[in-house]
Design brief:
about 250 residues; seven-stranded parallel sheet; single chain; alpha/beta; about 15% strand
Length: about 250
Protein backbone atom coordinates (compact mmCIF):
# COMPACT_ATOMS: atom_id res chain seq x y z
CA UNK A 1 0.00 0.00 0.00
CA UNK A 2 1.01 3.63 -0.52
CA UNK A 3 3.42 3.43 -3.46
CA UNK A 4 1.87 6.57 -5.02
CA UNK A 5 0.54 8.25 -1.87
CA UNK A 6 -0.46 11.85 -2.39
CA UNK A 7 -0.10 11.79 -6.17
CA UNK A 8 -2.77 12.73 -8.70
CA UNK A 9 -3.13 10.45 -11.71
CA UNK A 10 -5.04 10.70 -14.97
CA UNK A 11 -5.82 7.42 -16.73
CA UNK A 12 -7.25 7.72 -20.23
CA UNK A 13 -9.30 4.82 -21.51
CA UNK A 14 -9.83 3.96 -17.88
CA UNK A 15 -13.18 2.19 -18.18
CA UNK A 16 -12.06 -1.23 -19.36
CA UNK A 17 -9.12 -3.60 -19.59
CA UNK A 18 -5.65 -2.31 -18.79
CA UNK A 19 -6.94 1.20 -18.09
CA UNK A 20 -9.48 -0.03 -15.57
CA UNK A 21 -6.93 -2.24 -13.80
CA UNK A 22 -4.46 0.64 -13.71
CA UNK A 23 -6.96 3.14 -12.30
CA UNK A 24 -8.00 0.71 -9.58
CA UNK A 25 -4.42 -0.15 -8.64
CA UNK A 26 -3.23 3.47 -8.52
CA UNK A 27 -6.19 4.35 -6.29
CA UNK A 28 -5.45 1.37 -4.06
CA UNK A 29 -1.84 2.53 -3.75
CA UNK A 30 -2.82 5.99 -2.56
CA UNK A 31 -3.30 8.16 -5.65
CA UNK A 32 -6.27 10.35 -6.41
CA UNK A 33 -7.35 9.16 -9.84
CA UNK A 34 -9.14 10.87 -12.69
CA UNK A 35 -10.69 8.10 -14.76
CA UNK A 36 -11.44 9.26 -18.31
CA UNK A 37 -13.13 7.48 -21.20
CA UNK A 38 -15.95 7.71 -23.74
CA UNK A 39 -17.69 4.73 -22.10
CA UNK A 40 -19.53 6.64 -19.42
CA UNK A 41 -21.42 3.82 -17.71
CA UNK A 42 -18.35 1.60 -17.46
CA UNK A 43 -16.20 4.53 -16.32
CA UNK A 44 -18.64 5.47 -13.58
CA UNK A 45 -18.65 1.84 -12.43
CA UNK A 46 -14.87 1.94 -11.98
CA UNK A 47 -15.23 4.96 -9.70
CA UNK A 48 -18.15 3.41 -7.84
CA UNK A 49 -16.25 0.16 -7.32
CA UNK A 50 -13.32 2.05 -5.86
CA UNK A 51 -15.83 3.59 -3.46
CA UNK A 52 -14.27 6.81 -2.31
CA UNK A 53 -13.60 10.47 -2.99
CA UNK A 54 -10.15 9.57 -4.31
CA UNK A 55 -11.48 8.74 -7.79
CA UNK A 56 -13.69 10.69 -10.18
CA UNK A 57 -14.85 10.11 -13.74
CA UNK A 58 -14.73 12.49 -16.69
CA UNK A 59 -16.05 11.86 -20.20
CA UNK A 60 -13.14 12.41 -22.58
CA UNK A 61 -12.52 11.81 -26.27
CA UNK A 62 -8.73 12.10 -26.41
CA UNK A 63 -8.83 12.84 -30.15
CA UNK A 64 -10.56 16.17 -29.41
CA UNK A 65 -8.06 18.74 -28.16
CA UNK A 66 -10.76 21.06 -26.88
CA UNK A 67 -12.13 18.31 -24.67
CA UNK A 68 -8.66 17.40 -23.44
CA UNK A 69 -7.91 21.00 -22.49
CA UNK A 70 -11.22 21.44 -20.68
CA UNK A 71 -11.14 18.12 -18.84
CA UNK A 72 -7.52 18.51 -17.74
CA UNK A 73 -8.31 21.99 -16.42
CA UNK A 74 -11.24 20.56 -14.46
CA UNK A 75 -9.05 17.80 -13.05
CA UNK A 76 -6.47 20.34 -11.85
CA UNK A 77 -9.26 22.45 -10.34
CA UNK A 78 -10.58 19.36 -8.54
CA UNK A 79 -7.36 17.68 -7.41
CA UNK A 80 -4.90 20.59 -7.51
CA UNK A 81 -2.20 19.04 -9.71
CA UNK A 82 -1.23 16.28 -12.15
CA UNK A 83 1.62 13.99 -11.14
CA UNK A 84 0.93 10.94 -13.31
CA UNK A 85 -0.50 10.68 -16.81
CA UNK A 86 -1.27 7.24 -18.21
CA UNK A 87 -1.97 7.59 -21.92
CA UNK A 88 -3.84 4.33 -22.29
CA UNK A 89 -6.80 5.18 -24.56
CA UNK A 90 -6.55 3.38 -27.87
CA UNK A 91 -8.41 1.53 -30.59
CA UNK A 92 -7.35 -1.33 -32.84
CA UNK A 93 -8.94 -0.15 -36.09
CA UNK A 94 -9.62 -2.24 -39.16
CA UNK A 95 -7.84 -5.49 -39.88
CA UNK A 96 -7.23 -5.28 -43.62
CA UNK A 97 -4.13 -5.04 -45.82
CA UNK A 98 -2.70 -1.57 -46.27
CA UNK A 99 -3.97 -1.18 -49.82
CA UNK A 100 -7.54 -1.82 -48.65
CA UNK A 101 -7.54 0.63 -45.73
CA UNK A 102 -9.39 3.88 -46.38
CA UNK A 103 -8.03 7.28 -45.45
CA UNK A 104 -10.82 7.74 -42.91
CA UNK A 105 -10.04 4.38 -41.28
CA UNK A 106 -6.34 5.24 -41.08
CA UNK A 107 -7.01 8.72 -39.72
CA UNK A 108 -9.37 7.45 -37.02
CA UNK A 109 -6.71 5.18 -35.51
CA UNK A 110 -4.08 7.92 -35.67
CA UNK A 111 -6.47 10.44 -34.13
CA UNK A 112 -7.02 8.31 -31.01
CA UNK A 113 -3.74 6.42 -30.65
CA UNK A 114 -1.28 9.14 -31.68
CA UNK A 115 -2.96 12.54 -31.51
CA UNK A 116 -4.58 11.46 -28.25
CA UNK A 117 -1.17 10.90 -26.67
CA UNK A 118 0.04 14.20 -28.12
CA UNK A 119 -2.95 16.21 -26.84
CA UNK A 120 -2.91 14.70 -23.36
CA UNK A 121 0.84 15.15 -22.99
CA UNK A 122 0.60 18.72 -24.30
CA UNK A 123 -1.99 19.69 -21.70
CA UNK A 124 -0.43 17.81 -18.77
CA UNK A 125 3.15 19.03 -19.14
CA UNK A 126 2.61 22.71 -18.18
CA UNK A 127 0.98 21.70 -14.90
CA UNK A 128 3.75 19.19 -14.19
CA UNK A 129 6.34 21.90 -14.86
CA UNK A 130 4.68 24.18 -12.31
CA UNK A 131 4.62 21.51 -9.60
CA UNK A 132 8.15 20.23 -10.13
CA UNK A 133 7.80 17.15 -12.31
CA UNK A 134 5.79 14.04 -13.00
CA UNK A 135 5.60 10.73 -14.79
CA UNK A 136 4.00 10.14 -18.18
CA UNK A 137 3.39 6.54 -19.17
CA UNK A 138 2.40 5.89 -22.77
CA UNK A 139 0.80 2.59 -23.74
CA UNK A 140 2.43 1.31 -26.89
CA UNK A 141 2.44 -2.42 -27.69
CA UNK A 142 4.74 -5.24 -28.67
CA UNK A 143 3.69 -4.04 -32.11
CA UNK A 144 5.54 -0.81 -31.47
CA UNK A 145 8.69 -2.97 -31.41
CA UNK A 146 7.97 -5.75 -33.88
CA UNK A 147 5.20 -6.26 -36.41
CA UNK A 148 2.86 -8.82 -37.95
CA UNK A 149 0.83 -9.12 -41.13
CA UNK A 150 -2.33 -7.51 -39.79
CA UNK A 151 -3.92 -4.22 -38.59
CA UNK A 152 -1.46 -1.83 -40.33
CA UNK A 153 -2.84 1.42 -38.85
CA UNK A 154 -2.61 0.04 -35.31
CA UNK A 155 0.99 -1.10 -35.71
CA UNK A 156 2.01 2.23 -37.22
CA UNK A 157 0.34 4.13 -34.40
CA UNK A 158 2.07 2.14 -31.69
CA UNK A 159 5.45 2.64 -33.34
CA UNK A 160 4.76 6.37 -33.26
CA UNK A 161 3.93 6.24 -29.55
CA UNK A 162 7.26 4.56 -28.83
CA UNK A 163 9.27 7.33 -30.51
CA UNK A 164 7.09 10.09 -29.12
CA UNK A 165 7.89 8.78 -25.66
CA UNK A 166 11.64 8.95 -26.24
CA UNK A 167 11.46 12.44 -27.70
CA UNK A 168 9.42 13.79 -24.81
CA UNK A 169 11.67 12.02 -22.31
CA UNK A 170 14.59 14.05 -23.66
CA UNK A 171 12.65 17.29 -23.99
CA UNK A 172 11.29 17.32 -20.44
CA UNK A 173 14.02 15.61 -18.41
CA UNK A 174 15.29 19.01 -17.26
CA UNK A 175 11.84 19.63 -15.80
CA UNK A 176 11.94 16.31 -13.88
CA UNK A 177 9.18 14.89 -16.05
CA UNK A 178 9.84 11.27 -16.90
CA UNK A 179 8.29 9.71 -20.01
CA UNK A 180 8.29 5.97 -20.67
CA UNK A 181 6.43 3.56 -22.92
CA UNK A 182 4.85 0.26 -21.93
CA UNK A 183 4.63 -2.55 -24.48
CA UNK A 184 2.05 -5.18 -23.57
CA UNK A 185 1.82 -8.43 -25.46
CA UNK A 186 -1.36 -10.49 -25.60
CA UNK A 187 -3.39 -9.39 -22.58
CA UNK A 188 -6.94 -10.64 -22.02
CA UNK A 189 -8.79 -7.37 -22.60
CA UNK A 190 -11.98 -6.51 -24.51
CA UNK A 191 -9.81 -5.39 -27.44
CA UNK A 192 -8.08 -8.77 -27.72
CA UNK A 193 -11.31 -10.63 -27.04
CA UNK A 194 -13.11 -8.74 -29.82
CA UNK A 195 -10.20 -9.31 -32.19
CA UNK A 196 -10.27 -13.06 -31.58
CA UNK A 197 -14.04 -13.22 -31.82
CA UNK A 198 -13.86 -11.58 -35.24
CA UNK A 199 -11.48 -14.31 -36.39
CA UNK A 200 -13.91 -17.11 -35.48
CA UNK A 201 -14.00 -19.39 -32.43
CA UNK A 202 -13.08 -17.31 -29.37
CA UNK A 203 -11.84 -20.12 -27.12
CA UNK A 204 -9.91 -21.77 -29.91
CA UNK A 205 -8.28 -18.42 -30.65
CA UNK A 206 -7.37 -17.88 -27.02
CA UNK A 207 -5.83 -21.33 -26.81
CA UNK A 208 -3.85 -20.79 -30.00
CA UNK A 209 -2.44 -17.46 -28.81
CA UNK A 210 -1.59 -18.88 -25.38
CA UNK A 211 0.55 -21.53 -27.09
CA UNK A 212 2.57 -18.79 -28.81
CA UNK A 213 3.72 -17.32 -25.49
CA UNK A 214 6.88 -18.78 -23.93
CA UNK A 215 5.16 -18.63 -20.53
CA UNK A 216 2.26 -20.60 -21.99
CA UNK A 217 -0.64 -18.27 -21.20
CA UNK A 218 -2.16 -14.91 -22.06
CA UNK A 219 -1.53 -12.04 -19.66
CA UNK A 220 -4.05 -10.31 -17.43
CA UNK A 221 -4.63 -6.54 -17.14
CA UNK A 222 -3.08 -6.48 -13.67
CA UNK A 223 0.18 -7.77 -15.15
CA UNK A 224 0.47 -4.49 -17.04
CA UNK A 225 -1.02 -2.33 -14.30
CA UNK A 226 1.76 -3.30 -11.89
CA UNK A 227 4.36 -2.26 -14.46
CA UNK A 228 2.60 1.07 -14.87
CA UNK A 229 2.49 1.48 -11.09
CA UNK A 230 6.28 1.08 -10.97
CA UNK A 231 6.79 3.76 -13.61
CA UNK A 232 4.30 6.05 -11.87
CA UNK A 233 6.00 5.71 -8.50
CA UNK A 234 9.22 7.27 -7.23
CA UNK A 235 10.75 3.79 -7.34
CA UNK A 236 11.49 4.52 -11.02
CA UNK A 237 12.96 8.01 -10.44
CA UNK A 238 15.98 7.21 -12.67
CA UNK A 239 13.93 5.66 -15.48
CA UNK A 240 12.98 7.74 -18.50
CA UNK A 241 12.90 7.17 -22.25
CA UNK A 242 12.69 3.44 -21.64
CA UNK A 243 10.49 0.64 -22.94
CA UNK A 244 8.88 -1.72 -20.46
CA UNK A 245 7.93 -4.90 -22.32
CA UNK A 246 5.28 -7.05 -20.61
CA UNK A 247 4.64 -9.88 -23.04
CA UNK A 248 5.29 -13.29 -21.50
CA UNK A 249 8.53 -13.54 -23.48
CA UNK A 250 6.89 -13.20 -26.91
CA UNK A 251 9.36 -10.67 -28.36
CA UNK A 252 12.37 -12.56 -26.98
CA UNK A 253 11.85 -15.35 -29.51
Amino acid sequence: MGRVDGKVAIVTGGALGIGRATAMLLAKEGARVAVTDVLDQEGQEVVKEHGGAAARYWHLDVSNEGQVKTVFSEIVATFGRIDILVNNAGISGVNRPTHEVTEAEWDRVMAVNVKGVFFCTKHAVPTMMKTGGGSIINLSSIYGLISAADVPPYHASKGAVRLMSKTDALLYAKHHIRVNSVHPGFIWTPMVENYLRAQGDLEAGRHAIAKLQPLGHIGEPDDVAYGILYLASDESKFVTGSELVIDGGYTAQ
